[in-house]
Amino acid sequence: xxxxxxVAAGTRAVPRRRNGPARRRRAHGRRSWTGWAFVGPFLAVxxxxxxxxxxxAIYLSLYRQQLIGGNAFVGIDNYKTALSDPQFWASLRxxxxxxxxxxxxxxxxxxxxxxxxxxxxxxxxxxYRLSIFLPYxxxxxxxxxMWGFMYGTQFGLVSRLRSFFGGHFPDPLSSNWVLGSIGxxxxxxxxxxxxxxxxxxxxxxxxxxxxxAEIDGASQLAIVRWIKLPALRIAxxxxxxxxxxxxxxLFNEPEILHQLAPNTIPTNFTPNMYAYxxxxxxxxxxxxxxIAIVMGILTVIIAALVQWYGQxxxxxxxx
Amino acid sequence: xxxxxxxxxxxxxxxxxRLARRAAGRKRHSVVLNILMTVxxxxxxxPLFWLVVNSSKSQTALFSTFxxxxxxxxxxxxxxxxxxxxxxxxxxxWFANTVLYVVAGAGGATLLATLAxxxxxxxxxxxxxxxxxxxxxxxxxxxxxxxVPTFLxxxxxxxxxxxxxxxxxxxxxxxxxxxxxxYAAEAVPTEILEAARIDGAGEFRTFLVISSRLxxxxxxxxxxxxxxxxxxxxxxxxxxxxxxxxxxxxVGLNEWNSQASTIGGEAVYNLVITGSLLxxxxxxxxxxxxxxxxxxxxxxxxxxx
Amino acid sequence: MxxxxxxxxxxxxxxxxxSSGSSSSTASGSASSTTSAxxxxxxxxxxAWAPQDKQLVTAFEKAYPKIKVNLVNAGNGTAEYTxxxxxxxxxxxxxxxxxxxxxxxxxxxxxxxxVNLANYGLxxxxxxxxxxxxxxxxxxxxxxxxxxxxxPMTLWYNQAIFTKYHLTVPxxxxxxxxxxxxxxxxxxxxxxxxxxxxxxxxxxxxxxAGGHPYVTSGSKDVTINFTSDAGTQKxxxxxxxxxxxxxxxxxxGWSDQWYAGLANGTIATLVTxxxxxxxxxxxxxxxxxxxxxxxxxxxxxxxxxxxxxxGSSDAVLTASKNQAAAxxxxxxxxxxxxxxxxxxxxxxxxxxxxxxxxxxxxQAPAYFGGQQINKVLAQASSDVLSGWSYLPFQVYANSIxxxxxxxAYTGKSTLTAGLxxxxxxxxxxGSSQGFSITSK
Lengths: 319, 305, 440
Prior knowledge:
The complex is a heterotrimer. By secondary structure, chain A is mainly α.
């Protein structure tokens, strides 16, 4: 990361002057425009690809188009229906349950793996790091195919496990286990990704801290507790927020596995699947849009809660 | 992830060599740790192993042999040949489409995210905090539900069933924006920018000549994520494209998989599996090539010395 | 959020200039216009998924060189209907012709999206089809499509397994259930058939039992009745013990495991449409020589009632700019040269003349041990009960089957309760869509 020597030379040669208020204000004004110029292209595409559709979704959610009867403005009727829709709440409870179990398990696994990688006690650190990260590169569709094939009780891996354990091995796609089985696919896909987020954060810890700790005679466990974990706080919060958003929006994996287990994974299994089926099989675009907006708001709330909680702990932590 | 005042520390150029630590510590391999990590490695690799093994089986052998080991005639080469020639070689077309979407989409996304992240990091302007809040808020709305409005929007503009329908939405990478923002805050010292300004260089020129070089590893990291995301993009292309001509590999594979459930359709599970293998190999290769930049790049939060 | 407000404004503007919904098909053609249309250079887009259609396109283009047909596989069944619905709503990207299964025809016809082919003189083709089939493509007095293939329900069974376990080929449902028990008791890995809840199967079975759970009058009034409909109850009473007794293979239909089960005999029979022959030949090569076909079992001996399962028609979309040429193409497929080509390439025919032809009936495929399966299938075709109708929103109703009636298969409910739940939710949906629903 070498600096441009000419610029570096320039920095040394010209003493930096404190800008007077007048100059600062002018400079501020100029930078104000430039900032927007850099952010502009991103925002333009963003507005087109996300903001306008969200706006259109809000617009759609205020109307109702019927197969018989055409289009009519119904105000917040769709929202009222959504909030009293038992199928919506059932699916929401399901993803919240999923979230509460799968996210901590995956995050803890990723943390432990990252700590292990960082401990310099592994023989083949790069091999572990790469191979555990590999599943992230696999498309969710392919991952669901693969696990779907393996979950098969007649010919898949599970059938072998069954004959090995004498038929008591559960059917991963039966109603008691299906959420866990989906959780397994999601964990498999993302544990390496989260592990790498944590690992990078750990690699950024300055060596001096470790040296100081060694001099003080701190144990490995103490080092983990007092140096590494605090260093990971922000990374953990970021990882949790993304995982939470992903869990609440769960769609790809159950949608593909639904073909294999249509009754344990019906079309209203997650809120997203419910909305998707309403739109595309039922042409209930308006109601589906209302559900999507409600889901969006809920997601923002939950993500904000996670972040607030994380930051609160952090503020308490850094004494 | 709102604009907080604390700046997560960057490792760029600031990380002291790890050697100091290694030399000081005892380099002892922990058997327990190695075993546990090996278990995790096996877990990660198992389905991929399954994929490789079953790509070598013919359609009938798939159902009559053990899933985790080879069986029947070795049919990998004939499977691969069939994948490429089935249905007039549509797989090759899908492959080309995916490459197009990745190069245009991920390339564009990296560029836009870099420009925007740099702007957020290095410039102060009204509405700056709102920008990131809005971006993050929009991400929270489920993509599946935006599919119909986006579809309707694009169809009015006659963009559906064209590559644009896939590329345009994939140009937005909020994660990329965040990563560059965090990275640029540290990797591009404000002093250099001010010096360049004093020298009379324009903002954009400064960016091109100086900042972009400093942002290198950050950009490659963002490229890594966006390449993976666009290669694996499934849902939106599924909605936007009605002609198999423009399908990316993911959508095409799904169609082959569900083809078996049509009246008179052919069950081609061996092609689905082998096709999946062929889909996964290039992205993994790219991935392995780019991932080393991840290390010297971003740390989303760390102790600031 | 200022951004969202701006988005809202833009979106509102867009919505305002959206094309209005469906327009009813206005009479704009005649029989002669189709003939002349075939001589005008045109390009037609046809959305269809049956692999045999490629041969149809080649033959048609050869017969009418001025017309080019773009065959697009936009997905099968519901996947294609989703895209079609989206395209119609968006007002762009709609094909000229689409393959639409019979159960989905009312849904598209209702939205006014399908051209009334009577306007092109195609109602004269009525004599070519059985009443039941002809009824499937007529909605509210309009001819909205022409049949391409059909699927009379028959019993496909694995002779090798029947011999091995000394089972008799059932002619009544009582015998079928008895076979089921005997087979599963002899070998717990074997099942008489698989069923994880398929709305198409259920509706076809109720149809074959003489049921009429769906009654539509006019364009708005719909009655849904699973509770007191006689045919439904016959089916429930017969089938529910199979579910509760664990006598049905829990493998999802059309999955890789299902194909494997058909090949290795763990699924001994299939009660399904006449098109299954081709699927067995191409997808279950491992069981060559084992499978046979027989008429569907009856509720009382001596009767011959059956129903249709699946089968598709081709329809012309009102959004098409080439309606006359499209109508001509549809006629060519259904009753013209295309019908024979279709049959030869494996589609199960719809036209009575082909069904009764000796070239069709005398076929004795080696896959079926030399049995003249088409004789059985053609007979079944003529035994299909008439008077059945599907819901005007059957596609959606089928999509919620798994979350309602499908729960009977997870042990959480009974078939009767499940069907009632399906009825309720279908009724709720219908009402919210503006239909006048009577739910008995």
